[in-house]
Amino acid sequence: MPSCARKLASRSSRTSATGAPLPRQSAPCTRTPSSSPGASGFWDSTWSAIRNTVVPLYQPARLAGLVPVMQSYVGTLVANIAGCPDQHCIPFCQLSLRMAIDIIGKTAFGVEFGLSKNSPGGSETDCGEGDDDVREFLKEYKLSMEFIKMDLSSSLSTILGLFLPCVQTPCRRLLRRVPGTADYKMAENERRLCRRIDAIIASRRRDRAAHRRGGDAAPSPPLDFIAALLDAMENGGGANKDFALEDRHVRALAYEHLIAGTKTTAFTLSSVVYLVSCHPGVEEKLLREVDGFAPRGRSPDADELQSRFPYLDQVIKEAMRFHLVSPLIARQTSESVEIGGYVLPKGAYVWLAPGVLARDAAQFPDPEEFRPERFAPEAEEERARHPYAHIPFGVGPRACIGHKFALQQVKLAVVELYRRYVFRHSAAMESPIQFDFDLVLAFRHGVKLRAIRRASPTESG
Predict the structure, then answer these.
(1) Which whole number is the average pLDDT over 135-152?
(2) Which one of 18, 226, 231, 246 has the lowest number of neighbouring Cβ atoms within 10 Å?
(3) pTM value?
(4) DSSP symbols for 148-206
(5) Is 139 a domain residue?
């Protein structure tokens, strides 16, 4: 129930620093039944100090500066749809994932991955620039995402963790030393990926040093995440002067952005377009709002994305409720706590299922109906709903601090897509749609759509 989610979020001691949809820690928690080289590997005061350093990087002014970068990749997504050889079967999930990875590449790493320049039929991790280092980096990223599974096809330690969480950590430590096991392959891939991130950090540091030697003593604030963190390191750790930010912290945060900020964003965008395409009334209202914003040639800025698209906000919220990208959140208690009438001892593992909360008929009447208006501020349902009934980005101090970054991408993409197209389900799209339920929800066979070009204002006039 939502009140239990509130109790879990009231105190915490460890989570991923970005609050990303890797297993998140909320109170009273110290660890998760899974691990990664991301920031979720840090605990307590270290985690708090890292998070305090990261928070300023998601302030509105900095996010506003990222809009042109995002817009460029959104434009490439639109162009890729226009250039798809089969307009009756657009591989939308694949194209949106390339866009999301490219945006993270540029905004987190300062690297041009070039995925969006690839042909629509290629792999979503084949870079378009022919750069071997980038290609290998993306292959290792893809393997990392494949290892994040929560089913019987995953590693043995993960499978055991589903049923006996207490044995997962010792089992993983053992199996990571046994060549040929999935845990061993996972550990090797993580090491390779982390070495590549370390190389990117070193390269960014050299670039900054060369920039200063060139005589620019006051460069403009960096747009990419790694460079901004290097700034914080040079300034004594950012907001927390008692904490020394190190390269391993930068690597962990960059890794987490790559893992947590790509498939989640692509899935949410795909879910919005998929659901709108089969609800004509929703589509009509969305088109009216998009068309009423401004002439097609002008893109919204950050403030306009926040204030000029209230119905789009409702559509995204309802799509995230309908297909919640992070169906499970894992916790371990750091002290004895009572939740829902049950006393959980210290060290107990807790699984929170926000996807179940999002289908609670007491909070969302007719939960199987896709109805964005339920999130309208003036709606009685919205006013009566428990504030923790819908928590796609987590809650409390451990909530995802990158959610505005993700929503900015999704909203920009939806506005530009629906200015030019409407979409319908392709004949190749299965019905009902099937999902893979891992730590991150995924469309099993992707979303395949027909793209129908809309008339431009001059054509319609």
Answers:
(1) 77
(2) 246
(3) 0.86
(4) ---STTS-HHHHHHHH-GGGHHHHHHHHTTSTTSHHHHHHHHHHHHHHHHHHHHHHHHH
(5) no
